Amino acid sequence: MYHAKSLGRNNYQFYTEKLNQYATRHVQLEAGLKKALQDNEFHLVYQPKFNVETQQIVGLEALLRWESQELGIISPVEFIPLAEETGMINQIGNWAINQACCQLALWHGQGFEHIAVAVNLSARQLKADIISTIEVALAVSGLPAHALELELTESMIMGNPQDSVAVLSQLKALGLTIAIDDFGTGYSSLSYLKRFPIDTLKIDQEFVRDITEDPDDAAITSAIITLAHSLELNVVAEGVETQEQLNFLRDGGCDQVQGFLLSKPLTAINCLALLNQEKNS
């Protein structure tokens, strides 16, 4: 019944073994999520963001990972939508914000004050009391507000653009920076884009992947870079995996990149090692 409803209602679906397996998995994951925080099963990894010209690390994106004692490693693609659906994303997301702020504050104290950290926000978090959550995280960690960046997808903020402008303006007033993730994959409204108090546009890897082979992807990417710079916004390209892609983005004026070509997501220990290696080189 729920499967039929998820497909748009007013239809019927036959029982299959695959559907039963999906339902069982769904129940297992939901039960696992409820105790994952208390059992300390979540952790963050950090993917560096590099200046295109210097290839120096200028920031980190904190990414949530879940390793269940019972179910093993669970992909974010699987558990984050479930956390959204059940409402647990608020509690999990708040943990991630606090963890990322405390970790970066520690690295700042070790001499890496120029590094910022980006944390992804969900639609539910944006509707919750996100302002006080951020204020507490910054106060407890001692991290300066300008070192924290919040990433939101364009579909999320365009779901209710007027409310989004109000909330983002409050967040911006705290002194942090705001990025629009996966730009170009949702339903952008250029009239609202200029009203959002944002600092960065992130080009989705869907466009970057075939940037050197597909003229359409190349044209879209170049257009996003030009649009962003005309609005005095920073541009970050995701999913950079080849030197050819990096060359194209550099020639096109992209500001920052992240992807497996330069670094995969790293544990906190390995991330610090990379920062120290760069500092001493």
From TrEMBL:
Domain EAL residues, every copy: 26-279
Keyword Transmembrane: no
GO MF annotations, alphabetized: cyclic-guanylate-specific phosphodiesterase activity
Pfam families given in the database record: EAL (PF00563)
Class in the EC hierarchy, top level: hydrolase
Keyword check for Cell cycle: no
Superkingdom of origin organism: Bacteria
Protein name per UniProt: cyclic-guanylate-specific phosphodiesterase
Species: Shewanella algicola
